[in-house]
Amino acid sequence: MSVTVDGDKSGLVPVRVRRILRGPRAESVPALVGTACTFIGLIDIAAGVFPRFRHSRMHALAEVLPGALGPFAAALSLSAGVLLLLLAHGLKRNKRRAWRAAVVLLPAGAVAQFMYRNSVIGVLLSLALLTLLLRHRNQFAALPDPSSRWWALANFVLMGAGSIGLGLVIVSAHPNKVIGNPGLADRLEHVLFGLFGFEGPVGYRGGVDWTVGYSLGALGLLTAVTTVYLAFRPEQPAARLSEDDEARLRELLARHGKRDSLGHFALRRDKGVVFSPSGKAAVCYRVVSGVMLASGDPIGDVEAWPGAIERFMDEAKAHSWTPAVMGCSETGGQVWTRETGLDALELGDEAVVDVADFSLSGRAMRNVRQMVKRIERNGYETRVRRVRDLSDGELERIRRAAADWRGTDTERGFSMALGRIGDPSDGDSVIATAHKEDPDSPYGDLKAVLHFVPWGTDGMSLDLMRRDRSADPGMNELLIVAALQDSPRIGIERVSLNFAMFRSALARGEKLGAGPVLRTWRGLLVFLSRWFQIESLYKFNAKFQPRWEPRFVVFRSTRDLPRIGFAAMQAEGFVTVALPRPLRRRKVRSERPCAHQVQHIRQAAAVVVGDGEARAA
């Protein structure tokens, strides 16, 4: 018995040795290589910026060779380091283009380090990383992300600013070789001249001016080359909903649209779509900052959802995008987690009002009832109509008013916003308007607008709320009540209102007996409500005594949540890379008549979306 055990113990050693020699698991190589590239890129930059800390025969030979080999190697090391830093993120995401560039840059950086610094450690690190890249080249097969030529402008600004900052370090890294005592302005001028290949006002002794000049010139050339490459490479536009895709989605919504109140928002034309192999289900998405962001439940037959979800995950894997779903229902969350192994977290609750149960009578509705009566006594009247029943002239007036009343420079909304008003294909949508005579208004008697999209054949979901800032407070309450009271006339039995972020935490935290953790969490949400409509939108929805339907975010791992939240904020319009203000205003004016620019301010991810329309009185 002991012999067998001894034999087993002796066999453990070679197994462990083989594991070490085999190296890391293949799936962990991209993250490891990306981190290592960042480290080696910093080493390369340090080797090119800071003076030599020791002298060797190799350095002495380099300094007398024709062509100033030492300064040239410093510039090469600096360039390789900067490029490796730029490529590190792409390598972590398995990008094939990043792998190709890294395979070229690593040997160049190793040669530069050996020639300029005689750094054996730097050479060994570069070669070790190169070996790892070549051995696991099959892991780097991800396709490129959608791109546009705006990236060229962003690259020029960011690379230019980084080059100026790094150039100041280069100019100041040789204090014992500087002639005189140049100030910051002189150093900055020397950097700017050097980036364009000219000699600046700062002088050096001992041939250091060649090293500084080559290094600054390399930074300027790197900025120019990367900008030109991004400007002239073929564009890969983001996915857009084609007419055929939209027609197929409308067919699925006609048969299965009653199941999800967010289904009609899948028809946003700035989304892409993947269909199941049978064509009976689809998932709509948008890619933002490397996150493949779906919203709501899949469209179509529940039995065909797994096929559409599998296509979605395959597309995310092919591009190395991070998959995520915002605002899916409990049923949708169960299917997503079961089919993909992803995790789910409750994001908040959707307020749904059953028309048959709605009434203004009773103590609970007293505040809403009094507000509506007061506004009606002030001379306001309401109209609730289908889009197809409005004239073209009135629709155009509503579009222009909604754009002017938006209240923000950028449109907001993604997961619960359609992005247009009055499109001929959306004739079943419902518009509620408030009117009062105003001879000074450019929009006549129009004072407020609510836009609802279809939810099956017997429901509608709130898409947009806009009002004239000069109108009386309570316009949104007035129009929601009017829409609910007029719903039976147009065949509506249920109405989905706004989405309340962290609604259950706010509700439970204010109850008697709530624990310290829950009270602390609620206090934090109330504090954040000073900037984001978290508590106010929850209280606004609660006025109408709705039933609450939970909504979830689906994600791969907890460490992806910050990235998903940031991507969702970008998709919803809270984080934007905008043009300068004069250009942006000019663009808004030129696009104002276009129905596709009218979007609703809604909520998703880390904040509750709104334009100030739903603040509690």
Topology:
Blueprint: H1 2-22, H2 29-49, H3 57-64, H4 69-92, H5 96-116, H6 120-135, H7 150-172, E1 178-179, H8 184-195, E2 203-204, H9 208-232, H10 243-256, E3 272-275, E4 281-288, E5 291-295, E6 299-300, H11 305-319, E7 322-328, H12 330-340, E8 343-354, H13 366-377, E9 381-386, H14 392-404, E10 430-435, E11 446-454, E12 459-467, H15 475-486, E13 494-501, H16 503-509, H17 516-528, H18 535-542, E14 547-555, H19 561-572, H20 581-591
Mind explaining what this structure looks like?
It is built from 20 helices and 14 strands. It has 617 residues and is of the alpha+beta class. α2 (29-49) runs antiparallel to α6, α13 crosses α15 and α16 (503-509) crosses α17 (516-528). It is elongated, with a radius of gyration of 31 Å.
In short:
This protein is of the alpha+beta class and 617 residues long.
Query: Please, what is the average pLDDT?
Result: 78
How many individual β-strands? 14
Rg for CA atoms: 31 Å
Give the terminus-to-terminus CA distance: 82 Å
**Which class of secondary structure composition applies to the elements?**
alpha+beta
| Sequence stretches where pLDDT stays below 50 over 5 or more residues | 1-13, 53-69, 579-617
Counting H and I runs of at least 4 residues, what is the number of helices?
Answer: 20
Quote the beta fraction. Answer: 5-15%
| Overall outline | elongated
Instruction: Give the proportion of residues in helices.
Output: 40-55%
Taking the sheet with the most strands, its summary is: 12 strands, mixed
